[in-house]
Amino acid sequence: MQYREGLYSSHLVTWRRERQTGILKGLTPHKRGPKSKRNPQDEKIQKLRRENQRLTEELRKAEIVIDVQEKSGCSVGLAPAEGGPRGETLMDAVTHLAPTVGVGAACDFLGVARASFYRQRPVLGPPASPAPKPALPAERPAPARALSAVERASVLTVLHEERFQDRSPAAVQATLLDEGQYLCSARTMYRILEQEGESRERRDQLVHPPYQKPELLATAPNQLWSWDITKLLGPAKWTYFYLYVILDVFSRYVTGWMVAHREGAELTKQFIEETIGKHQVPAGQLNIHADRGRVMTSKPVAFLMADLGVTKTHSRPYVSDDNPYSESQFRTMKYRPEFPDRFGCIQDSHAFCQQFFHWYNEEHRHSGIGWLTPAVVHFGETQTVLAQRQVMLDAAYQAHPDRFVRRPPRPLPLPSEVWINRPVPPGEKTKEESQ
Fold first, then answer.
1. Mean pLDDT split into 10-residue runs, the chain, 435 residues
2. In terms of pTM, does the model score above 0.70?
3. In Å, what is the CA distance from 322 to each residue of 148, 201, 246, 388, 399?
4. CATH number of the domain that 319 lies in?
5. What are residue 20's phi and psi, to 5 degrees?
6. Full domain range(s) for residue 160
7. How many structural domains does the chain have?
8. Is 228 helix (H, G, I), strand (E, B) or coil?
9. Is residue 258 part of a domain?
10. d(Cα 155, Cα 170) in Å, to the nearest integer?
């Protein structure tokens, strides 16, 4: 048979025969590099020697174990009782055998529980030949380039001078260099101050007084209002509409809202004045709380509050939870399914707010006011709605009393008071202190 490449079957038969007879051995690829001169028998001899050493060591250990067992009168599997002369003898035997075969193996050979050995070992005292204690390291000598005691005292004296009392070591060193004097590096000055316990802030700085935490209480509508401003995204990037919202803290009722193209003190003044007039809140009754935004702390708004007899309070700086009710209301609005990514125009945002605030005041059951709507609580219809709920629950109880195991059902009551930062009772830690 002839193939396309000119290879015949006879060629294959010839090559197989030559391979079997070793003729083609010279064509076999060999590993490059110098040939090894080691005799294969040497590796076997080394292996046998290591095995012989291991068996000799095992035999030596076995002889020691047998000797200890004979002297202690113990056989494998016999667990001694704790205490007594026999127990002390076995514990001594384990202590003697442990350096040779290990504590675990010694306890197994002598039938002693390791827990018993470790428990009674302090009672038996130290072993016969305790290991010497390591020597304490010698005290590190002072470097040759270190400042002497006199030099350190002079540096500390300079740092205590009146003109340097409230300056950092780096500033002190720079001043001395400008005056043609060098004492040491700034890091050495820091190190000396740290050793003297004076490494805290050295500069004389203004300490801001702590801001009073607003603790505001509402027990009825129109006692405490909270207001804030949020941004609504406009039709293009960097365009916004500003939503002003005033919320009654006790009833969660939105008493007023306004959408504007900008933030402004005059707009705010007009907005608050119209909202107070619409609800006819008498002077001296209302407290309006807000954060410390530019508009909230403006003079026109402050003068308006004073003219209307309204008390104004503000959140503490950089404290986000001093105005929680307005923030919660904004979250409810922005997480509604129909809230758009952007508003096409200010009329679009106005139409959305009309629909949303009608739902929020008239239909939304709020968890913080007993699942009542804000309008029901704000306009004094709470008792009527709760009485109607109680009638329905009584009918359900009469029909299936076995379904109410503990007591007859009652509707969730309306909270009698609402706080912004409820005072902490004496002896109880605040949230900041507990963290």
1. 62 78 65 63 82 83 75 54 61 77 77 77 51 61 85 92 87 92 92 87 76 92 96 95 97 97 94 95 94 92 93 89 93 95 96 97 95 96 96 95 92 94 78 57
2. no
3. 57, 31, 16, 36, 47
4. 3.30.420.10
5. -70, -35
6. 150-195
7. 3
8. strand
9. yes
10. 13
